[in-house]
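Q: I have 365 residues here and want to know how they pack in 3D. Can you give me a structure?
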Amino acid sequence: MATNGEQKQYDIPKECKAGVVVNEGPNFHIEMQMVPVPEPGPDEVLIRLNATGICYSDLHFALGDLPVPPMSHYGCRSPGHEGAGIIVKLGRNVKNFQLGDRAGLKPIWDTCGACELCWHDKECYCPSAVFTGLAQTGSYQQYVVSPAKYTSPIPEGVSDYVAGPVMCSASTIYRSLVESELRPGDWACFPGGGGGVGIQGVQLAKAMGFRPVVVDTGDAKRDLALKMGAEAFVDFKTSSDVGEEVAKVADGKGAHGVFVTAPAAYNTALSLTGTRIGAKVMCIGLPSAGTVTLGADPNVFAFRNLTIKGTLVGSMHDVDTALKFAQRGVLKQICEVVPIDQLPEAVERLRRGEVPGRIVADFNA
């Protein structure tokens, strides 16, 4: 962070670019507009974002298809929660940041900080949690305010193109890997692992001593998965039996942990555990409300000691840990970078399932 003797001043415009949701619902689209630059409150910082990742949750918020009130209920117009930039203005009470410090905007904008969940590293479940890009302006807008106490500092040595996706995709999958309680040498299967969250999971799983297997489709995702550390790739479109192929790779039994980042994969997730005793299926990707049910005969769970568990997003601590992985070079750039004016087109590409890894939009390009 900057020292007191290195105080900087920034020219802050009255307006900035923002990707705005138009026609919220199934026929939404993103439109680039000029919007007013917000003023930070006394306990907030103003961040000028250099980059934002594009997450499928952004599309869910624009579609309004999750079991939460829509963006319009909160008066929010810009989604996004994978922002990386610098602090250009401080609220009068802010002591933990200096002008020019690097900072990120993540899925949770703020929490109460005073409940049991907040005290025990589960603050994303806090009843007072405010979701970025849903109830508070998100990272599709270049200048955003953020509570100083819940703003994540970005360390040196981590580019904005890496740090942006860490705010959600890497920290989210890191949380799920930790809660799975897998041990070094265990097989971790990632259906949908060629996408933004899954490919971060592949890198982290390898770093944590697990053995990653990716289930996805297409040469681009195959190449990316193997490059980032997957020991095997199973193409669900060409395989005659995906579960059998995964089991063949994983000791002839099946995965110890299945990390479902693509909602379409829930239908076959249990099959990826094969005959493995004590396997865990981790629910991460969010399907449209009411479209998916996951389960089986209770005898299956009892006789195989099978567990299904869900995780939401990473905590403040998880984000910090994931950034440290990135600082060590464990998390590499997995994104395609586009100019911010191409944000609407990039969102549509993600909607069509055409994106290996992540797309990051550059506000300065």
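Q: Anything worth noting?
A: The first helix runs from residue 56 to 63. The CA atoms of residues 75 and 135 lie 7 Å apart.
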